[in-house]
Amino acid sequence: MSLRFHWMLPKGGEVGMLTAQETSRVLTTKSTSKASLPDIEGWLKFSRCAEEAGIESVLMSFSRYEPDTLVIASALGQATKKLKFIVAYRTGFMQPTTFVQQVNTLSGLIDGRVALNIVAGSSAAEQRGYGDFLDHDERYARADEFLEICHMFWRRNGEVAFKGDYFEVETGQLSTPFVAPDRSSPEIYVSGHSVQAERLAQRQGSCWLRLIDTPENLVPLVERNREHWIEMCLRLCVICRPTREEALDAARALLPDDDTERQERNILNSSDSQTLKQALAKADEVGWMNENLWAGLVPFYGSSAITLVGSPHELAQAFLDYKAIGITQFIISGWPKLEEMVIFGNEVIPLVRDAESSCKSC
Amino acid sequence: MSERSVKHPRSSVARFHWMLPKGGEVSLNGPQTPRDAAHYRLASTRDGSPAPVPDIPGWTHFGRCAEEAGIESLLVSFSKYEPDPILVSAALGQTTTKLKFIAAYRSGLMKPTSFVQQINTASAFMPGRLALNIVAGSSTEEQRGYGDYLAHDERYARAEEFLEVCHSFWRDSDDVNFDGKYYQVDHGKLHTPLFADRSIPEIYISGHSAQAEQLAVSKGTCLLRVADTVENLKPAVARVLERGIEVCLRMCVICRPTRAEAIEVAESLLPRDDMGQYERSVAVKNDSQMYREASEARDMWLSPLLWKGFVRYYGPVWTTLVGSFDDVAGALLEYKAIGVTQFIMSGWPELDEVKTFGSEVLPRVRRAGA
Predict the structure, then answer these.
(1) A16 with A42: CB under 8 angstroms?
(2) Does the model's pTM come out above 0.90?
(3) Mind listing the pLDDT tens digit for each residue in B155-212?
(4) Which residues of A touch B51 (CB under 8 A)?
(5) Backbone phi, psi, residue A79, to 5°
(6) With an 8 Å Cβ cutoff, are A106 and B190 in contact?
(7) Do B146 and A172 touch (CB under 8 A)?
(8) Spatial CA neighbour of B41 closest among B52, B25, B59
């Protein structure tokens, strides 16, 4: 099977941005940030470039600082043909019946080009703004029930009845089906580093989405998830330049001033996410996790800023190394927001595809 | 409340909206008889009907015809038999340019914060073209399928809280706090604003109960109810107008060159079997006041033009204005005269009826200065 490459949809206003400094979360969470405004023109341009670059899907992140993901996909999908949308949503914000109705509707509006990234929650403060007062572990228990009910609807096997701790449904029925050329329910990426997140992915998801780490560190995780028949997808950034030196220069140029670090630290420290804590520890302890994998941007831009840095050949080889241990999917972002994806599509994907076709067992 | 005066500008011109047809109902492959169209709609809740599948090509075609006909908005209804109205509106907003959408939604199916985030996002794709039809609930059975176990009156109390939280986000999106019986929000914050020339979208509240009227007055801009005779409506309309909001009537319409032709079409739509009778029966909608009233009325003709021959089979929203172009225009003017300012119509087939309505009835209404 070929590796599957997805990309993060830039936030509103980011499509033209060149540096990590411009797109830092410290800025995007301000009420004056363009991240809150749907960027129809920018997104259309980005989506078309993604299709051309050989990117399969774009992931849309969910937060109170951004527009709603399901709605964006409904509208943006009208103007694209091939690109899929991985819609991030948090369980607990709507009834599972309502959620399935929306997801199924979306599938019918955009020819089934929809997958889900299910997130149990975010910071306690953000969750309370949505009327959610559960703690971390309970949010996962609720997410499990939530997806259990969703799957019951997707099986279309009669009326849905469920009685749990968080949800109760009787005579549940939805006429609008999930429609896609090859599936009767969406792919579900479950993200998070906690034991609960991994278990949720195994029980209810099709793929566990987590931050990139070194292949050595990931081997045992891949092994234990293989038994559950789910895939693993890594979230990472890339900086690809013609030579390693140029890539390193580009990487270093993304380091910001101290003020950004202090503010980002506050965001990181206030979170109860395992993902953030682990990523930050990596950055503090090691910086370079191996020859190409750099955590140097994490203290400034958050956990998803672990970055593969190198030449096209180095990066292609790095992806093949992940493939060799059983990783099948990647969700990538980079800087400049648009150009890095174009470089990746032109320079890295063809090398990966060549290697894949010449080595059937790879 | 100080915003009351700007919140409800009284329309001086009657506003006409139309129902979005079911998926697949707008046939792009040739003409349908009214009876074909009615049957398609009645079968839309049955297994195997294509109606629940979103139909962007058909709906876009209908939307453009409605725009040309002078229709202001399409109402996108909500039920377990249909696709989600918010997402459908967002998608159709991309394929039309002027038409507005009234997305129906039931409070209680999602958190108000999430709801506002979705509505505000959708509005960005169709600035100034998104309104809401908030419904407190439906049949007990359908509500339970959504995980909602509240009784009729409690659903209204919850809807009140739901819209209170929504209003808070629309007024001040940066720090919303609410501690109610059904919802709690602690330092709620949403950065995506509503894209409109008003801070709060138009909100139609439907229902015939006292609770519905109270909710419309306190949190809405317009009470949406099923058409009745002018005499029956007059006191209710006057009371609602007095309380500062508009009244919108939901009705079907069959207009033809002569009254005899219109009646012939109406009679062709009466069912030959019990299709729909169970689904729409009072037994199912047991706690809806609107359904109870409809089942109690005895006469088929409420007035010379207003016919409820379909209601016992298909439900109260099939209350139908039947007549010649002049008859129908005249009836609408009478409603306008007692203060009704908005109408949401439908017909069989939707496409043919909206075209006829736009070319024959609307010009007559406009010529009369309404």
Answers:
(1) yes
(2) yes
(3) 999 999 999 999 999 998 789 999 999 999 999 999 999 999 999 999 999 988 999 9
(4) 175
(5) -110, 5
(6) no
(7) yes
(8) B25
